[in-house]
Amino acid sequence: MRLPRFDASARVLHWSHAVIFIWLLATGIQLFLTPKSLLGDPLIRRIHLYASLPFILLPVMIYIAGSSLTRIDIKELISWTGDDLNWFVELLKNRKTAATGKFNGGQKVNFIVMLLLIAGLSFSGFVVWMKSLFSVNFVELNFLAHDSLAILSILLLAGHITFALYNSESLHGIIFGTVDEKWAEEHYPAWFEQETGIK
Questions:
Q1: Calpha distance 151→155 (Å, rounded)
Q2: CA distance linking residue 176 with residue 36, whole number of Å
Q3: How confident is the model at residue 34 (pLDDT cuts 50, 70, 90)?
Q4: Can you tell me the distance from the alpha carbon of 50 to that of 44, in angstroms, rounded to the nearest whole number?
Q5: Torsion sign across C-alpha atoms 186, 187, 188, 192
Q6: 3-class DSSP assignment, residue 2
Q7: Sign of the dihedral defined by the CA atoms of residues 102, 108, 112, 114, in that order
Q8: Where does the pLDDT of residue 37 fall: very low under 50, low under 70, confident under 90, or very high at 90 and above?
Q9: Where would I find the H helices in the chain?
Q10: Which residue range or ranges hold the Cytochrome b561 bacterial/Ni-hydrogenase domain (predicted)?
Q11: Right CATH number for 2-196 from 3.40.50.300, 2.60.120.590, 2.30.33.40, 1.20.950.20?
């Protein structure tokens, strides 16, 4: 049997943001490797800049106009309990881990780090974009910050994809919206009980 895990709103939020994020990384790498000028090829730069707008605005729009379930998911992802810390302790001890809600501690850390990276990339990107408004030293500092945060983003994305491929049922959930009930009961027992009423 299959259990609904992510509705259409959550899946659109995830995949639209993922596609734009990868596009920004690809164009950003192109700019970084282009020797034409400090800011790279003008066309690629323009594409990169304008892609940053839906990267920032689209998640906000989906959060506001999307389903209440998506908003509940996001609230859970940014909330922490002692059980989430215990999840990491058990993981470090090489013991079997099970989340006490819909998301485990690792997923919550991934989400929060991604939010911080988005904020940092957006701010440093804005400073570089509007460099005439700021001092040369501040712009150069934000160039460095933007590149450094982009590298961290690539590492985070690589880890995210690796875990998603390893946990194929989790990947199925974010693509098609449902997961296997037995898998849910094993990895997310509290959420499974909440959704099914089965203890």
A1: 6
A2: 43
A3: confident
A4: 10
A5: negative
A6: strand
A7: negative
A8: low
A9: 8-33, 42-65, 68-77, 82-92, 105-129, 136-166, 168-176, 181-187, 189-196
A10: 5-170
A11: 1.20.950.20
Predicted TM-score of the model (pTM): 0.87
The three-state DSSP-derived secondary structure of 47-64 is HHHHHHHHHHHHHHHHHH
Closest to 118 in 3D by CA, of 40, 54, 68, 26: 54
Quote the Cα angle for 71-76-80, to 5°.
150
**45-83 burial code (b ≥16 CB/10 A, e <16):** bebbbebbeebbeebeebeeebeeebeebbeebeeeeee
Q: Name which of 27, 17, 43 is nearest 117 in CA terms.
A: 17
User: Would the pLDDT of 36 be above 60?
Assistant: no
Give the count of beta carbons closer than 10 Å to the beta carbon of residue 189: 15
Every domain of the chain and the residues it spans = 2-196
